Amino acid sequence: MMSMKKEASSLSELGFDVNFGAGFFRQVPSSVCDNGEGTQRQRRPTKVSVIGAGDVGMAIAQTILTQGLADEIALVDADAGRVRGEMLDLQHAAAFLPRVRIVAGTDVLALTRGSDLAIVTLPGARPVGHRGVELLRKNVAVLREVVPAVAEGSPESLLLVVSNPVDVLAYAAWKLSGFPASRVIGSGTNLDSSRLRRLLADHLGVGAQDVHAYMVGEHGGSAVALWSSISVGGMPVLSYLQKTHASFDGEALEGIRRAVVGGACEVIGLKGYASWAIGYSVASLARSLLRDQRRVHPVSVLAKGFIPGDDHQVFLSLPARLGRGGVLGVAAELELTADEESTLRRSAETLWEHCQALGI
Amino acid sequence: MHKASSLSELGFNAGTASSGFFRPVADDSPPTPSAAHRRLTKVSVIGAGNVGMAIAQTILTQNLADEIALVDALPDKLRGEALDLQHAAAFLPRVRIVSDTDAAVTRNSDLVVITAGARQIPGETRLNLLQRNVALYRKIVPPVAEHSPEALLLVVSNPVDVLTYVAWKLSGFPASRVIGSGTNLDSSRFRFLIAEHLDVNAQDVQAYMVGEHGDSSVAIWSSISVGGMPAFKSLRDSHLNFDEEALEGIRRAVVGGAYEVIGLKGYTSWAIGYSVASLAASLLRDQRRVHPVSVLASGFHGISDGHDVFLSLPARLGRAGILGVAEMDLTEAEAAQLRRSAKTLWENCQLLGL
């Protein structure tokens, strides 16, 4: 078996003078016109940190790298060997990508310092039953270690939580960070909405990007599809769906909704984990945030005051305008049916109970 | 737990043209036959493991294909991977993603990337592993070639030089349409190390590793050029104690890079994904870019014309495949190393009975 020795990772480790570059390219002479103002304040490079270098974290990091969204990427994980391997695997592609500084290790504070966006991914797939409670407790314990360190090193950062149960964990991260709620987001139903849009798009023969449809509420089995607001090409879709169904009733729509929320479980059941889709979903959020795109995404935000009849301080997914400042605004004029409202209120109640039990 | 993957499975009628959600314009003439449309670009990836999926995903992100087909022997894993890509539909331009254990799904591909390969059993000889891989290729390559007789074939499985030869023989394709990923990635690692040292962008470092991919690859020091300047002499002058060992140290760091990643994370994926996507872009978009890839090397650098071996040389790549191979100026020592590799490769190839 090949020895696992650490390879030289720089020419200076191999005896080549580290100051070589200074001679190979020489600087222009200082200009006599230098007005003495000193170096211009250069725009800081855009830095994204990904905490958790598992399948999800790495799919996110790699997609962000490929899409050219960051100048610097920090990878943090408790497993020093694995995260170093992941870093090298990305660095080796240097000839095929624009120059991006990639660092990796186990020290959250040191590595994430100065981040514009910190993305937290934690272990575990969708929790089921009491295993879910165990997983939640473990993940909150990790957040207690990780989030304050991120907040200390990057007090202006945006914080994006991508682990389940995402709404509770986003709340926990918000509390632990001390950040304004506008700078803390959970990935929420952004990906579920993509699945819904794909199903409808394939059915209608259009591109998914032209299907405007939102899943909102509690991420997971109770997510709500806002049927009445789905539109394509300026046309509402719901009545068309009703007309074309063999025997339309509430169950028909519920069938679609279940297919959507079950999507991740299905992938996990087949390949053991889900990674690519969440990678693209989070990269899409990263782009809207870092490039100040003002795009509307259904993500887990502080929903207090947005659900009629509910005032709990909980995070759940609503269509939110995202930009460089984080959550610029949340949809305030949603037209919800009575059923949709009551489902959201129920979710808020349940989430509030979970959040209170955290003791944060 | 097969979930519904379409609305029609859930009882919704896919609308016909006349009663559908979108109606065609009033038009007396018959619709343009689809054969008249320029075909969409289709890439197939054989092998949905870490390497195959990193390649497929990078090709998808870089929007190089209109259709991607995935093939693997494991049906659940395959379907899971295809779904995982399909679920991202709202975040990507529309790409048709299909998958099947049957190679027929690769029909009419423009490019077929082969990553399938047997894993080495502890204690297994290289020759035995090679023979198992040949058996695998005998199952994979002929159907692929039959379903896409005009395709470009890109071999990634290791040992890549031998398996590219195998794929060429089994496909019956002209050698210009059969390419091995070769030292394209090694060269990237080489360029990265030099670029970090010079504090320049790796894309501005021209440097080639050639020959047999793996432990015996050859670094062409004289080929290193940055900003129009040959870098070798300056690199040499900057070394505290320059000798052959210093260069060999760099070469080993490059070759060892893959082993190090495997030792740390269990496999490599991202880098080879970007490397192959880069080759795919040059091929599919007819970029005429020069990449060090595994090509039929007989007749180059004193390698005997009769020895049909594949090894990496800088080659111009475009839509028709390998458009030409660089006639590099090698030192006698470098050419001798290539010839030595060619000899070993030829001996291995002859044992395969193709």
Automatic annotation (TrEMBL), chain A:
One of its GO terms (molecular function) is L-lactate dehydrogenase (NAD+) activity. InterPro entries: L-lactate/malate_DH (IPR001557), Lactate/malate_DH_C (IPR022383), Lactate/malate_DH_N (IPR001236), Lactate_DH/Glyco_Ohase_4_C (IPR015955), NAD(P)-bd_dom_sf (IPR036291). This is L-lactate dehydrogenase. Residues 189-353 form the Lactate/malate dehydrogenase C-terminal domain. Residues 46-186 form the Lactate/malate dehydrogenase N-terminal domain. Keywords: NAD, Oxidoreductase. The lineage of its organism: Eukaryota, Viridiplantae, Streptophyta, Embryophyta, Tracheophyta. One of its GO terms (biological process) is lactate metabolic process. NAD(+) binds at residues 52-57, 77, 139, 162-164. The active site is at residue 219. Signal peptide: none annotated. Belongs to the LDH/MDH superfamily.
From TrEMBL, chain B:
Residues 183-348 form the Lactate/malate dehydrogenase C-terminal domain. Signal peptide: none annotated. NAD(+) binds at residues 47-52, 72, 133, 156-158. Keywords: NAD, Oxidoreductase, Stress response. Pathway: Fermentation; pyruvate fermentation to lactate; (S)-lactate from pyruvate: step 1/1. The keyword Oxidoreductase applies. The keyword Oxidoreductase applies. GO terms for biological process: lactate metabolic process. GO terms for cellular component: cytoplasm. SUPFAM superfamilies: LDH C-terminal domain-like, NAD(P)-binding Rossmann-fold domains. Gene3D superfamilies: Lactate dehydrogenase/glycoside hydrolase, family 4, C-terminal (3.90.110.10), NAD(P)-binding Rossmann-like Domain (3.40.50.720). It catalyses: (S)-lactate + NAD(+) = pyruvate + NADH + H(+). The active site is at residue 213. One of its GO terms (molecular function) is L-lactate dehydrogenase (NAD+) activity. InterPro entries: L-lactate/malate_DH, L-lactate_DH, L-lactate_DH_AS, Lactate/malate_DH_C, Lactate/malate_DH_N, Lactate_DH/Glyco_Ohase_4_C, NAD(P)-bd_dom_sf. Residues 41-180 form the Lactate/malate dehydrogenase N-terminal domain. PROSITE patterns: L_LDH. Belongs to the LDH/MDH superfamily. LDH family. Tetramer that arise from random association of LDH-A and LDH-B. This is L-lactate dehydrogenase. It comes from Lolium multiflorum (Italian ryegrass).
